[in-house]
Amino acid sequence: MVAPQSVRGFTLLEAIVALVIFTMGALALYGWLSTNVIALGRIRAQQEQERVQASALDLVRRGNPMLEPEGQRLAGDLRVTWRAKLVEPAKPAVSQSGVPGLFAVGLYALDVRIERDGAELQQFEVRQVGWKQIRAGEAP
Fold first, then answer.
1. Residue 3, number of CB atoms within 10 A of its CB
2. Is the pTM of this model over 0.85?
3. Residue partners of 56: CB distance under 8 A and separation at least 6
4. What are the phi and psi torsion angles at 134 (to 5°)?
């Protein structure tokens, strides 16, 4: 029995054209996915860098550069070191109403370095107030 003329399959040329079209779409999709994965990696690295800097800043802010001008602290696997340089000399504090305060305050520039496993991750400078009690008594 002979097949009718109206029933035909794909020719080899049609199959090749369909594969080329499919391949072009797949390559475009792969390029788009690859770009997104690279961008995601950069975002994660930036988030980690910001987290490390925030942790170091929190550690440094807890200290008093007037009493401890140099030092280091550990936070997990991070080593945070700082060195303070006097920017404004210490002066007796005065309240908004002009009453002398209990403390002398000075402004310091802190050079902060963050290391992990001996390798420096970041270095930044922050300004911070240092204080020292100079009078006894209750604050007004």
1. 7
2. no
3. 75, 78, 80, 112, 114, 122
4. -120, -15
Domain boundaries, the chain: 12-133
pLDDT tens, 44-60? 999 999 999 999 999 99
pLDDT of residue 1: 57
Residue 89 scores a pLDDT above 90: yes
Instruction: For residue 83, give Cα distances in angstroms to 14, 35, 114, 119.
Output: 73, 41, 12, 18
| Pairing outcome for strands 100-116 and 119-133 | antiparallel
DSSP structure string for 88-131: EEEEEEE-TTS-EEEEEEEEEEEEEEEEETTEEEEEEEEEEEEE
The span from the CA of 136 to the CA of 134, in Å, is 7
